[in-house]
Design goal:
The chain is mainly beta and about 200 residues long. The protein has one domain: Jelly Rolls. It is built from two helices and 13 strands; from the N terminus they run αββαβββββββββββ. The strands form two sheets. Strands 1, 3, 4, 6, 9, 10, 11 and 13 form an eight-stranded antiparallel beta sheet that branches. Strands 2-5-12-7-8 form a five-stranded antiparallel beta sheet, with no helix packed on it. It is globular, with a radius of gyration of 16 Å. The two termini are about 15 Å apart.
């Protein structure tokens, strides 16, 4: 049975808490969450400063669109919840890798963002349940929850993936969270993560 109402209520409460600290787009993490970006540098990430294509700029994580690899967390994660704000331009393309695997899709496409793009065709989660994207150039907010091989994605307050199996369950128990580069400028902010313990699933 799908768990629709609970994620909506839970994420809605957390979004309220996040937005309560909003000032010029930056927010305080909800209780129990840790920020993966201090607004000044990419110290919580791998390879960002070395590649010079991922930058901490104007309080945002910015990708220049000029190549380079994904921006990868310095730490591995098992089960977790993630908030992240993202913005792309017209025709933009990106994604969020979970445990080092692709991906929760971000793109300017009529299908909408948030789907588990690399899932098999016609499987649950492959295509978003609804199109919830804001216009290119506007900010969007993901809430992503991953427990075991199951993933829920809420985009701008709407469930787009409801507790779907990720990659047929063929994933490792832990891995990095990654911001994908796809040859176009990207912006991220308010990246908050909470690890889920075995007693809190």
């Amino acid at each position: 049975m799908k768990r629709v109402l609970l994620p909506i209520l839970f994420a809605g409460c957390l979004l309220t808490n996040v937005q309560a600290g909003e000032k010029d787009g930056t927010k305080e993490p909800p209780r129990g969450f840790t920020s993966l970006f201090n607004g000044k540098d990419l110290s919580a990430w791998k390879n960002g400063d070395k590649q010079k294509t991922w930058l901490a700029q104007d309080g945002l994580i910015y990708h220049t669109g000029k190549g380079g690899g994904n921006l990868t967390t310095a730490k591995n994660y098992k089960d977790f919840e993630l908030f992240v704000d993202w913005k792309i331009g017209k025709g933009g393309d990106s994604g969020i890798y979970l445990r080092g695997k692709p991906q929760v899709q971000i793109w300017d496409n009529k299908e909408g963002s948030g789907g588990l793009y690399n899932n098999p065709a016609k499987s649950d989660g492959r295509v978003p349940l609804v199109v919830a994207d804001n216009k290119p150039g506007e900010w969007n907010t993901f809430y992503i929850k991953m427990v075991g091989a199951k993933v829920t994605v809420i985009l701008n307050g709407k469930i787009v993936v409801d507790n779907a199996v990720f990659l047929n369950g063929k994933i490792s128990d832990e891995g990095t969270i990654e911001l994908q580069t796809h040859g176009n400028p990207l912006w991220f902010r308010n990246v908050f993560v909470r690890e889920i313990g075995a007693d809190k699933k």
